[in-house]
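Hey, I was hoping to borrow your eyes for a little while. I've been puzzling over a protein and I'd love to understand its fold better. The fold is given in discrete form, as structure tokens running alongside the sequence. I'd be grateful if you could look everything over and explain what you see. No rush at all, and the record is pasted right below.
>
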Amino acid sequence: MEFETIPTVPTADELLDRSLRRAAAKKKLKTNVDRANEEFVRAVAKAIHDKLKSVVSSFPSFERLPPFYQEATEILVSLDRLKRSLGAVTWAAEQVWTIGSGYTRSMRSGEETDQKRRQAVARIASIVHQVEDDLVFLNDARNVLRKLPHVTEDEFTVVVAGFPNVGKSSFIRLVSTADPEIAAYPFTTKGIIVGHHEIGKRDRIQFIDTPGVLERPAEERNPIERQAVSAIINTADVVLFILDASEHCGYSLDDQIRLLEEIRRLVDVPVVTVVNKADIQGIEGYPTMSTLTGEGVEGALDLLLTFRKATTQTNLREPPQPETQE
């Protein structure tokens, strides 16, 4: 995933200290004082310009990212704020280069090069400190985005949804490679977890375990809940909605049904409903399972696999599209 390769973004002071030290080393190589001062300014400007440009280029083009990652970025750090900070750093890089180039040209006359060197460094440092908040924000955003799971676009994806503590993580753990934290209290899933179920040697299903999505208006949902909704909308080939008929999850069955109906309105893919904790209580007419005892879990998985098989067969039947003649 592209976020994983973003390097640490330095603070303004870290960037200046590193660049000044490198420039000082280059300055020592010049025996002529005026040429040494000119080389110092050139080296400082180039090092800072190149590093700032590198910071900007290390972030992906968000318009080209899959919808899930665009939504997740918006939820977690704000795309608009991210773009503003990247724009500010780009501006700073250009200003530093302009200042450095102007001073190095003026220093070729050999007049007052010590003073011009100090002026150039002061102006460059001022520019860098103007984007200090942007550099800090970009590093914080980098630390958050690097933790997003790798979601593969071209794999059949089952999104597991429902209220907190209904057994979503337990189901994912039983049927896939994911190892989510399991606990007997709500909201144990603090982010999206991805696992895979192998089908033979060359195929697999992707499972996405979402945080508990509360049945409340969209504007009242917190960032974790909105991230779950984004996963449901943007990645699902089928949604597995888990109900807890025993209501031991802490939410009434009526509230759970209302959330189920909302999710059905949100997506254009099949929504499979399964009742968990069937060892306590089930609902007539719904498939049941117990992630505690394991009873019915394979049946729920087999039900999901039928949608995978149907999708595969449909794709095989689709005739190739004719090439468009220019």
